[in-house]
Amino acid sequence: MREKHFACKTFEVPLGAAKIARVKSLTVGVFKLPDGYYAMLNVCPHKGAAVCEGPVCGTTRQTDDREFVYERAGEIVRCAWHGWEFDIRTGEFLVDKKIRARTFAVSVEGDNVFVHV
Ligand code: FES
Q: Is residue 46 within 6 Å of ligand 1 at its C-beta?
């Protein structure tokens, strides 16, 4: 059963980067997106790097043409070790949706951010 744990204050979460918080025995990245707060385990499913400490960015859409389409700015975190890109909302690895970074439900009460672990 998941329990609610205090992670950080809302004002501690920067735009465009994660607030790294300790939740129980876990290290979690808390992100602020335009539609709310999200939390991801700070362990990359590839080789275990601190994925949430990588850059928050967008991604390049695959196209049939030679055009370069950059989209989803601010919705993706890119692991600093090997560049794998993960959807901050779902944890999905963009290249293979069967691979996911672990994510957690988040709730906000006043200026307190809680992660449900
Ligand atoms: S450890 Fe994250 S991409 Fe390799």
A: yes
- Encode pLDDT of 4-15 as tens digits: 999 999 999 999
pLDDT, tens only, 36-55: 999 999 999 999 999 999 99
What is the token pair recorded at 75? 């919705």
Do 116 and 2 meet the contact criterion of CB atoms below 8 Å apart? yes
Decide if 91 contacts 31 (C-beta within 8 A): no
Report whether residue 39 contacts ligand 1, using a CB cutoff of 6 Å: no
- 50 CA from centroid of ligand 1 (Å): 8
